[in-house]
Amino acid sequence: MPRPQKSLEPNKFKFRESFASLKFVPRFFGEIRKVNPRLFYLNIFLRLTNAVLPVLMLWVGKLIIDEVVVQIAADVKDLDHLWALVAAEFALAVLSDLFSRGISLSDALLGDQYSINTSVKIIRKTSEVNLDELEDSEFYDKLERARQQTTGRVGLMSNILTQAEDIIVIATLLAGVVVFEPWLIILLVVSIVPTMINEVKFSGTSYSLARSWTQERRELDYLRYAGASDVTAKEVKLFGLSDYLANRFKGLSDLYYTQSKQLAKQRAGWGSFFNVIGTTAYYGAYVLIIFRTVAGVFSLGDLTFLSGSFNRLRQKLQGFFTRFTAITETALYLQDYFEFLDLSYHESASGGKTPLPKELKEGLEFRNVGFKYPKSERWVVRNINFKLKAEEKLAFVGENGAGKTTLIKLLLQFYEPTEGEILLDGIPVKQFDRAAYQRYFGVIFQDFVKFELTLRENIAMGEITKINDQGRIEGAAEKSLANQVVSELPFGYDQQLGKRFKQGKDLSGGQWQKIAIARAYMKDAEVLILDEPTSALDARAETEAFDRFIKLTRGKTAVIISHRFSTVRIADRIMVLKDGAVLELGTHEELMQNNKLYSELFNLQAAGYK
Ligand SMILES: Nc1ncnc2c1ncn2[C@@H]1O[C@H](COP(=O)(O)OP(=O)(O)OP(=O)(O)O)[C@@H](O)[C@H]1O
């Protein structure tokens, strides 16, 4: 399918926007300073001191040449003063080198610390976000833009500090030049300003281009992952998808390449043109200085000082403006990053203040609940009315897509019902602090996460504060039969799981599930929810797991979702969902007598086993 071409309109970019992005710079520096104040101030001190060295060196150079000229003409040579000057220049050169290295080192260290800090912030912020926002592609684009350019932001720090340093260098050099020849300043402006305008303009456009490609970049990342990852490898090989994925990747990348090449060429073309103007102005200045020297207005030392200063000034100014554009360009990303950190979620995100009852007394209730997923017009579930009594084990049954998992997500307040309400002991759940409410539940989803961490961590994820409580971890493993898995692994609980890392071991689907179930036992939750956690277990293991579950969670409230009726019948009551509505609700015996969908499906499965 042809992709719509994105327009590239460099002229549309506004200067004001470019400067506006700089308003985030103070906050950025505040963050860096907080990361390591001592290193930050040391860096600034080194830069400020380093900034006055160039003009000092040029000045001493001038004095050396003037002294050499004097000594050539002198009948009696006295070189003491000359050697003192040479020694001074040498000392300045050594100092400058030491300072520069110190600056690079502290830049690198600060940069590393800052980028760790940012990544941690992004992880934390992402966890604050509601599920509906996480599933939203606009949010993902923001996240992507916040995440990229972490290294760019580190460069930004050193660029801004270098900028401050260079302002001092430029000011001191300018002062030197003005004293001798104020006219040179005009030539300097002529040589620099066009380049600056050009650079600022193009930096904005390249940012706009990169920004408009956020979605596609995510797509590229995904294609790279789909084409080259252990998770997809089996099917990619089997279905011979490698070429298809590689070509799709290439097609999309080429499109971006073509557009950014066009921009880079324009930028380089105009840049070279303005540079020629700059060089012409420099040589104009050089000619002026030579004329003055020949006329006897300037000494030879003045000539070297002035031409050296002018050349340096031009380089520094050019560097200053190029860096300025790099800064505004990266600062635009900074804007994305801070916007991401400042994202505020709808007010109900954290819920109310009503304290949760210590124990569930009456139970949970869905009252006339209906729900449409965000940006969808379809009622996924509607008119849902049921009670989950305290200490009851309720099973959800229904065909694929009937809405079972959606009810769980609503119960957990991952989403708010579009209509109706959910109550806990008669209190609308919205009135509880959302995080505390969610901690009330121990949940294992059908798509539970296989953390590529140690086995211990995988179990402890159920109640991470208890990660050092070996007894509790072992207890949970025994209950879920994960201890059988542990005994087969060379490093036991310290076994690295997954294939991604050294000495990692991948497990079978059923083994992973046992570990995931241990997570539910790890938490002393009031309500347990198992959403098809046993689908990968063999029939015997599943029956055993559920029998144990029922025994071990006596006195607890639980919801079980399963497609296996031999499991489902163990529950106290069964709720049958069809097309987002409750079709039947009752005990196994009641539903069998009902002679509707449940008994039909039960008999169908039972026949399959005969
Ligand atoms: N994040 C989402 N956004 C939009 N629609 C969704 C989302 N998640 C699920 N749906 C839709 O909601 C309906 C119910 O899905 P749900 O996952 O609740 O079904 P289920 O009964 O648990 O199915 P299964 O037995 O296959 O797990 C489906 O039609 C599905 O396409």
Q: How would you describe what is shown here?
A:
- This protein has 610 residues and is an alpha/beta fold.
- Among the domains are: 20-342, Up-down Bundle (ABC transporter transmembrane region fold); 451-524, P-loop containing nucleotide triphosphate hydrolases (Rossmann fold, 3-Layer(aba) Sandwich), CATH 3.40.50.
- The chain is 63% helix and 10% strand.
- The protein has 23 helices and 10 strands.
- It has helices spanning 15-20, 25-35, 37-51, 53-73, 80-128, 131-134, 137-147, 150-180, 183-212, 214-227, 230-238, 242-294, 300-342, 404-411, 434-439, 455-460, 470-480, 482-488, 509-522, 539-552, 565-568, 588-594, 597-609; strands at 363-371, 381-389, 393-398, 419-424, 427-428, 441-444, 527-531, 557-561, 573-578, 581-586.
- The strands form 2 sheets. It has a 6-stranded mixed β-sheet with strand order 6-7-8-3-9-10, sandwiched between helices. It has a 4-stranded antiparallel β-sheet with strand order 2-1-4-5, covered by helices on one side.
- Helix 3 runs parallel beside helix 8 (150-180).
- It is elongated, with a radius of gyration of 35 Å.
- The two termini are 50 Å apart.
- Mean pLDDT is 85; it is low at 4-11.
- Residues 135, 373, 376, 380, 398, 400-406 line the site of adenosine-5'-triphosphate.
Summarize the structure.
The chain has 610 residues and is of the alpha/beta class.
